[in-house]
Design brief:
Shape: globular
Mean pLDDT: 93
Low-confidence stretches: 1-6
CATH architecture of one domain: 3-Layer(aba) Sandwich
Largest sheet: 7 strands, mixed
CATH class of one domain: Alpha Beta
Order of helices and strands: HEHEEEHEHHEHHHE
Radius of gyration: 18 Å
Oligomer: single chain
CATH topology of one domain: Rossmann fold
Number of helices: 8
Number of strands: 7
CATH superfamily of one domain: Vaccinia Virus protein VP39
Helix content: 25-40%
Strand content: 15-25%
Length: 264
């Protein structure tokens, strides 16, 4: 959710849809499990910060039904399908700059968004301000510094190359303004912002087909930056992508930390 002209993982890139699909396959079950625990139902008003591939938005719309409302916001919505219908409302919005797109929400959710926002503090307080009393906030961020390896079982040159490139991708994202360790701070930040009943957990899969897809799409999107910075060569990247496609490595992701709380 940084300005899209500075965002390395730009939603407008031709292969962004494949990355969205991989993220949905990996993390939607975790996101949905948390929201279901909140008791989401007919008539709920929800704000999805960072519409992404629309999988979470579509799921929310089914849960809230025709009497509910799902406001989905993003910096750029040109990639979104043209068939968006109520209860979904799709809006161009910068969560770190603009005022909230409404108030009195029962649920505000952001996944893999705030670490990319330059003014993360303002964004978080804007999301909380938009909640009704008793409303729930769910923020989910990866933390690649907590588990920095692409292949925890580093048993050969393929795994060593994968881990070296994972470090390079993390460093490149950090140079662009992403805060890699933001996820681990979320429980404290939610408490300090005044939320109650704050809890958190972490999830990361190992050896899933979507892990391979996500690895390929992510490395492909930042390829030019890695080569330009001298962190990898084109030959390194081609060899790694071939290794990923061969399916012989146990690839994993950074842990997805989910933190939630209730507004007083």
């Amino acid at each position: 959710m940084m300005r899209t002209d500075a965002h390395l993982l730009d939603n407008r890139q031709p292969d962004a849809g494949q990355r969205f699909d991989a993220l949905a396959a990996l993390f939607d079950p975790t996101t949905f499990r948390h929201i279901e625990r909140f008791g989401i139902g007919s008539g709920w008003r929800c704000w999805e910060v960072g519409a992404g591939g629309m999988s979470v938005v579509s799921w929310l719309a089914k849960r809230v039904g025709p009497t509910g409302r799902v406001v989905a916001t993003d910096l750029d919505t040109s990639w979104a399908p043209s068939s968006v219908r109520p209860p979904i409302q799709l809006r161009v919005h910068d969560v770190g700059v603009d005022e909230p797109p409404g108030e009195g929400f029962d649920l505000v959710h952001a996944r893999l968004v705030l670490a990319h926002v330059p003014d993360r503090e303002r964004a978080l307080y804007s999301m909380i301000r938009a909640l009704r009393p008793g409303g729930r906030l769910l923020v989910e961020e990866a933390d690649p510094t907590m588990q920095p390896l692409a292949c925890p079982d580093e048993r050969g040159p393929e795994q060593q190359l994968a881990n070296r490139l994972r470090h390079a991708v993390r460093d490149t994202l950090a140079e662009s303004g992403v805060e890699p360790a933001y996820g681990r701070r979320l429980p404290r930040l939610l408490r300090e912002a005044g939320l109650r009943q704050v809890e958190a957990d972490a999830y990361f899969p190992i050896t899933a087909s979507a892990c391979r897809a996500l690895e390929s799409e992510t490395v492909g999107q930042v390829r030019d930056q890695l080569v330009a910075a001298g962190l990898a060569t084109d030959q390194d990247i081609d060899r790694h992508l071939a290794n990923v496609a061969a399916g012989g490595m146990d690839l994993t992701t950074a842990p997805l930390i989910s933190a939630w709380g209730r507004k007083v």
